[in-house]
Amino acid sequence: MHPTLLDRALNFIGLERRAYNAQDPSWSHPLLQGGSVTTARAESLSAAYACVAAISETIASLPLILYRRTDDDGRERASNHPLYRVLHDQANEFQTALEFREMMQAMTLLRGNAHAEIIRDNGGQVIALVPLLPGTVTTLQLDNGRIAYDVTDTKGRVRRLLRHEVLHLKHRSNNGLVGVSPITASRETFELALSEREHGNSTYENGTKLSGILNFKNSVGPQKLEEIREAWHKKYAGGGNTGRVAVLQGDADYKPLSMSMEDAQWIEARQFSVEEIARLFRVPPTIIGDLRHGNYSNSVEMNRVFVVHTLRRHMTMWEQAISSSLLTPAGRRLYFAEHSVEGLLRGDSSNRADFYSKGITDGWLTVDEVRKFENLPKLSDEDVRRINDRNHQQQQL
């Protein structure tokens, strides 16, 4: 709902009051403000980075088309509409449509929210979308019930944008105003994965197969013990010294204590963390390179699952946000945006062709309905006559 002229005037001079301050929870949580888990550290996990990349890169690379509804319940590309270029070609002066959409989708996954300022021409048409940096936007619900956004620049100055001036993408929300990222919702999973990685790094940097206790039969003074410890560490500790033979002098005896990484099942724990992170982002493990349970046949099925159960939610989020924020009420009745996913399903084209063929043969699908599913235009009357003539000739043969 667009604000009235009076609302805009009141907002401009700052007479409205904040009824609710919905700060992005991915930045307000203490652990994500400088504790053990930050967004950057979570993304440094290869599984998390791969999940975010798989979703954001795929969504950004899919054609996002603005269509115009036609009188015969069909569709055609609205290539002359200003918004078509913004969604399909160039989002703003500095970013292509792919770069912009990839950035926005990644922010949604990592932080739960992504914001972009809507730039319009004098006629009210969208001509650019400029992303707002994460952590600079505070979502507000005003006393009049409307939504606004306070944006803080690098100098600490705050400017207010109204709802119709911001494209806001949200992950699953707890209050309807701001989204919550998988990292925030399940931070313990990322803490464990980070701890496992740091354990491995520490083992290779400081650990050694010879870690244990040096036991002396005779008493040794504190200073001498410290000198022996430093000499031992310098000569035998570290991944580069693994496997070296220790030489003991005098009456010293070495007793190893530490378990090997295999004994601690470190590798199995790391593999489980990959599955856990993939589960949080709803990405099949085969998509991010975990092929332990993958083969040719189920990898094809996993690609279909990825499109249907992972990407569909995010594609619908984009399409509905575009309709709500970038089109006027009158524009929504005539225009709509839709992703083309046919290219992702080409690996399963034989099954789709068989499905369509049976539907047409049994009479519960028409050729035009199939073409609509495949983002193809309806057949012209001349095409229909040509196909009917060809089918008639084949039947005679």
In total, how many beta strands?
12
H/E element sequence: HEHHHEEHHEEEEEEHHEHEHHHEHHH
Number of helices: 15
Rg, alpha carbons: 30 Å
Mean of residue pLDDT? 80
In terms of quaternary structure, what is this? single chain
Structural class: alpha+beta
- Tally the structural domains: 3
Distance between the first and last residues' Cα: 62 Å
Task: Give the SSE layout.
Elements: H1 5-12, E1 18-23, H2 25-28, H3 39-43, H4 46-61, E2 64-69, E3 75-77, H5 82-88, H6 97-111, E4 113-120, E5 126-132, E6 137-142, E7 147-152, E8 158-162, E9 166-170, H7 182-185, H8 187-206, E10 212-216, H9 222-236, E11 252-256, H10 266-281, H11 296-326, H12 329-334, E12 335-339, H13 349-362, H14 367-373, H15 381-396
Antiparallel strand pairs: 1-6, 2-3, 2-12, 4-5, 4-9, 6-7, 7-8, 10-11
Architecture overview:
This protein has 397 residues and is an alpha+beta fold. The protein folds into three domains: 1-199 and 264-340, no CATH class; 208-257, no CATH class; 349-397, no CATH class. The chain is built from 15 helices and twelve strands. The protein has helices spanning 5-12, 25-28, 39-43, 46-61, 82-88, 97-111, 182-185, 187-206, 222-236, 266-281, 296-326, 329-334, 349-362, 367-373, 381-396, and strands at residues 18-23, 64-69, 75-77, 113-120, 126-132, 137-142, 147-152, 158-162, 166-170, 212-216, 252-256, 335-339. The strands form four sheets. A four-stranded antiparallel sheet has the order 1-6-7-8. Helix 4 crosses helix 6 (97-111), helix 4 (46-61) runs parallel beside helix 10 and helix 8 (187-206) runs antiparallel to helix 10 (266-281). The longest helix is centred in the C-terminal third of the chain and has 31 residues, at 296-326. It is flat. This is Phage portal protein, HK97 family.
